[in-house]
Design goal:
The chain is mainly alpha-helical and about 150 residues long. The protein has a domain of about 100 residues. It is about 45% helix and about 0% strand. The chain is elongated, with a radius of gyration of 26 Å.
């Protein structure tokens, strides 16, 4: 199982991706707070991840705290089979929110293009084929300025 990205944890703790990101962070919190092995038994001498989760929530921009949570999750997953399975399922859901993968690759190729080409991500409220803005009315203050280059 791949470790949970510290950048993803930091982004989720910081509230990226709106409601989906918040729900993903809340789900991770619930997962971390579950008892080891769900069946009780002996608690291994490793962090549940709850302290690291709380510290990162207090300062989402601290990459050291994000890395500490990532490490705690990996160690717990190594010793708790139920947690490992649930964390893997959580990671699949979190992949939909991956803030670290927000890079966009735009390719425009071949032929002649007529019209607007937008490059970026997550556009909204766009209008194409709109009439051009009207020209400013003539008769303004600058109309009577003499051309001094003559």
């Amino acid at each position: 199982m791949d470790p949970v990205s510290a950048a993803l944890l930091s982004a989720l703790a910081g509230g990226v991706a709106g409601e989906v990101g918040r729900q993903t962070w809340t789900t991770l919190g619930a997962l971390v707070r579950r008892p080891f092995g769900r069946g009780g038994g002996n608690t291994p001498p490793v962090s549940s991840g709850e302290a690291e989760l709380t510290r990162l929530a207090a300062d989402p921009g601290d990459q050291g705290r994000a890395q500490a949570l990532s490490t705690a999750l990996a160690v717990r997953a190594a010793v708790d089979e139920d947690f490992r399975a649930d964390l893997a399922a959580w990671q699949e859901q979190a992949a939909l929110v991956r803030a670290e993968d927000s890079a966009v690759t735009n390719i425009v190729s071949g032929g002649t293009l007529n019209g607007p080409v937008l490059q970026g991500k997550d556009f909204s409220n766009l209008t194409f084929n709109a009439a051009p803005a009207p020209a400013p009315p003539s008769g303004g203050a600058n109309d009577n300025v003499a051309d001094s280059t003559r």
